[in-house]
Design brief:
Elements: E1 3-9, H1 16-26, E2 33-38, E3 44-50, E4 61-62, E5 68-76, H2 90-101, E6 111-119, E7 124-129, E8 138-142, E9 145-149, H3 167-176, E10 190-191, E11 196-201, E12 206-211, H4 227-246, E13 252-255, H5 260-271, E14 278-282, H6 287-299, E15 303-307, H7 312-325, H8 340-346, E16 349-351, H9 367-370, H10 375-388, H11 397-403, H12 406-412, H13 415-424, H14 434-449, H15 451-456, E17 461-463, H16 469-475, H17 480-483, H18 487-496, H19 516-536, H20 550-555, H21 559-566, H22 569-573, H23 579-591, H24 596-614
Parallel strand pairs: 13-14, 13-16, 14-15, 16-17
Antiparallel strand pairs: 1-3, 1-9, 2-3, 4-5, 5-6, 6-7, 7-11, 8-9, 8-10, 11-12
Helix pairs in contact: 3-13, 3-24, 4-5, 4-16, 4-18, 5-18, 23-24
């Protein structure tokens, strides 16, 4: 992970020991660098952890008068702004911008970043998340002390921050396999949401949270554009976004999959004259590996495979993954962590397809959400969608009742749905489909899938072209039927690279082209070919849909590991989960046939491992 951290005390107590402990907790891989500096009074400390690529000079950075200090992780977009000189670091730009505009500077900031700025004259500290919150910032304010970090567990190093678990977060994690809104696993710790900043007044021990940016709910949809015009402009904005992410002296590379997101980036890089090294991980028999190889061959990329044919690697990497993500998404989401060492050998910046299946692809524009006629039916649709569609299929209502001990269930029942309604509330002012897409971007992608970025950033920096602000400002306001079912994504790929639109992709093994005739012809010929193979008795084994077979690994090479967690004395004595249900659930998983068991078992395992690592210790 990369990010900023700090400790500030309003009662003139030393924070040095806590800052040192946080810095130690944040350092997990040799590729990471951690720096912090305490004030002469030892009552304030600021620090940063990163991969040593962007803004690599030591931090904190002070102004000439030594009255302002800033720590910064990530990268700003400074096209067309004052002080846009690329030779001037983002940290120095922030110091000059704050000197001119104060806290109002936040509205001017674009990019993917986390920052904290200490004003020694006013005696306050400002902590800012980018518009989407792509760098996690967890914070706590208690007993005259304010502290923040890119992970939850380092904050527990402070003697004033208790490790009392948040039962609402427990209910969310078991139902949705993720946390919602600003919750963390611990009552005393919250997440700073995207588009928000914190201002801590040290002299008065007062903490304020404010929103500095949000999408405009009154802005009309761009129905004045034809689909062709919309696709042309989107393709231009994609190239611009990829260009922004690949500027500079750093080595740029890509994790190449069989999907659309990574190949759109490859196509845009081709428009810019770049051929990045590409890395693909997973089972050699999967669709991902097969189609990624075809894309690399078509474009002449230097392509490397990091294969895994079984799940033994999980036992080696589960703990680093837990430390880098707090367990905020479970161990079945750590694919690719074993490729980080090889990635760092070949690239400094990984251009990620993160959020490429968001507004550009329209995958959240579903009839089940569009049909909801009021807030209650909408919340019910989102609840079922989070549980069964957007994430791995998870537990049912009856499973939830049986999972928790009877005493605990009486405390947590209904909390998951109630907290979901609270998370939905800020988005109800937007029209459809903007309402649903923004909800899933902020609450699902950023709160859940962005943890892929957290462990990647321990080794390399990550460029995020699909959340470029100019691209999003345009695409989000296009009519939903332009984007639904990946229609716009296919059109963009066809414009950027017609040859790559003639390579099938992993989703349905059909051509990702907006030419419906060509797509239908390919679908028909594929069906004829498969039928002929069956008749001739030469039918080949179908390619694995997923690059990682966690479900079967858990029944085989990971079985002993899973049972050591689920049925251990520590798990039983906590009084959270009903032992009889855990055994019943485990037998259901071993028997196979129920796709929801993995989405139920894995969060239970990850939560228990989180408790052992961060609470028991």
């Amino acid at each position: 992970m990369s990010g900023v951290f700090g400790v500030f005390d309003a009662r003139s107590r030393s924070v040095t020991a806590t800052a040192e402990a946080i810095a130690e907790r944040l350092h997990h891989l040799s590729t990471q660098q951690v720096q912090f500096e305490a004030s002469p009074s030892a009552c304030e400390a600021l620090g940063r952890v990163d991969a040593g690529v962007y803004n690599a000079a030591p931090q904190p950075v002070w102004n000439e008068a030594c009255s302002l200090a800033v720590v910064f992780a990530g990268r700003l977009i400074r096209d067309g702004v004052e002080d846009g000189d690329p030779a001037r670091s983002d940290a120095h730009y922030l110091l000059s911008l704050y000197a001119r505009e104060g806290v109002a500077m936040c509205a001017r900031l674009r990019g993917s970043f986390a920052l904290a700025l200490y004003d020694a004259i006013r005696r306050w500290v400002i902590v800012v998340a980018d518009r989407m919150g792509t760098f996690p910032i967890y914070y706590a304010h208690r007993e005259g002390r304010f502290l923040f970090a890119p992970n939850q567990h380092p904050l527990l190093c402070d003697p004033f921050i208790p490790a009392a678990i948040d039962l609402t977060a427990l209910a969310q994690y078991m139902r949705f396999q993720q946390l919602l809104h600003d919750t963390s696993f611990f009552e005393a710790i919250k997440l700073l949401r995207g588009g928000h900043y914190l201002l801590y007044d040290i002299a008065h021990d007062h903490l304020t949270e404010a929103c500095y940016w949000a999408f405009d709910p009154e802005r009309p949809m761009r129905s004045d554009l034809s689909f062709a015009e919309a696709a042309d402009e989107t393709a231009r904005l994609v190239v611009q976004a990829v260009d922004r992410c690949s500027r500079g002296p750093h080595r740029v590379g890509i994790f190449l999959s069989g999907g659309l997101d990574s190949r759109i980036i490859v196509a845009a890089l081709g428009q810019l004259g770049h051929r990045p090294p590409a890395l693909t991980f997973g089972s050699p028999t999967s669709r991902d590996v097969y189609y990624a190889a075809l894309v690399a061959e078509q474009t002449g990329l230097d392509h490397h495979l990091c294969p895994r044919t079984d799940g033994h690697w999980v036992k080696e990497y589960w703990r680093p993954h837990l430390m880098l993500t707090d367990g905020s998404h479970s161990w079945i989401h750590m694919h690719g962590i074993y490729a980080l060492a090889e990635a760092r050998e070949r690239m400094d910046v990984n251009l990620s397809g993160f959020a490429g299946d968001g507004p550009l692809s329209g995958t959240c524009i579903r009839d089940v959400y569009l049909a909801a006629h009021d807030e209650m039916s909408y919340a019910a649709a989102i609840f079922d969608g989070l549980r069964t569609i957007e994430n791995w299929p998870a537990m049912s209502e009856t499973d939830e009742q049986l999972l928790f001990t009877p005493e605990l269930f009486q405390t947590v029942k209904g909390r998951a749905f109630a907290s979901l309604r609270e998370a939905i509330a800020p988005f109800l002012r937007y029209p459809e489909p903007l309402r649903t897409e923004l909800f899933f971007e902020y609450v699902s992608d950023i709160r859940h899938y962005s943890h892929y970025l957290s462990f990647k950033r321990a080794a390399v920096e990550v460029g995020l072209p699909f959340i470029d602000p100019d691209l999003w400002d345009f695409v989000f306001y296009l009519p939903g039927d332009y984007r639904k079912d990946r229609r716009l994504s296919r059109a963009v790929l066809s414009r950027l690279s017609p040859s790559l639109a003639r390579v099938p992709y992993d989703h349905d093994e059909l051509l990702p082209t907006d030419n419906r005739l060509l797509r239908s012809a390919h679908h028909f010929s594929a069906r004829i070919r498969r039928r002929a193979q069956r008749l001739l008795g030469v039918q080949t084994q179908p390619r694995a849909t997923l690059h990682s077979d966690y479900e079967n690994w858990l029944r085989a090479e990971l079985r002993e590991w899973a049972e050591s967690i689920l049925f251990d004395r520590r798990t039983q004595e906590r009084g959270l989960f009903e032992p009889a249900f855990l055994r019943s659930l485990w037998q259901r998983h071993l028997a196979g046939g129920d796709p929801s068991t993995l989405g139920t078992v894995a969060p239970i395992m990850s939560y228990e491992l989180m408790l052992r690592e961060f609470v028991d210790s």
